[in-house]
Design a protein that fits this description.
Length: 133
């Protein structure tokens, strides 16, 4: 993620990850090298099952309007998180062996629609065996 994201997308303003739990700290581990490279803090205070709380925080707080946000979450909750953000998940449920995807949501004019926002499903293709487009 650290070399891939900056070479592919605009520099993020904010990094979010699901909070570390007794079951997993994978989202924080995944995004930490990028956070270190960009000298950004990781906001990881919301549990993975509380994705609606994250979506509400992002959509209701004007400080995120017009910003590039990177969210690293547990794959089982990504489709529901995407819907909570107004997107239409390209895959639901998330495939169990898919760890190489970026879903991109773009809000027109900084305004989040209620639902149905198209979501780009982008293959990272970083490792041997990663999924094709």
């Amino acid at each position: 993620m650290a070399p891939y994201f900056p070479a592919t997308f605009p520099r993020p303003h904010v990094l979010f990850a699901a909070a570390t739990s007794k079951h997993s700290d994978r989202p924080v581990e995944t995004i930490t090298p990028l956070a270190q490279a960009l000298k950004l803090d990781i906001k990881a205070d919301i549990a993975d099952a509380d994705y609606a709380t994250l979506a509400n925080k992002i959509l209701s707080d004007g400080k995120y309007e017009g910003k590039v946000l990177l969210i690293c979450w547990h794959h089982g909750h990504i489709p529901a998180l995407t819907q909570s953000l107004g997107g239409e998940p390209p895959q639901d449920p998330w495939p169990n062996l898919a760890f190489d995807r970026v879903w991109q949501l773009d809000y027109p004019s900084g305004v989040a629609p209620a639902s149905g926002l198209p979501v780009r499903n982008i293959a990272q293709r970083l490792l041997f065996g990663d999924q094709p487009d």
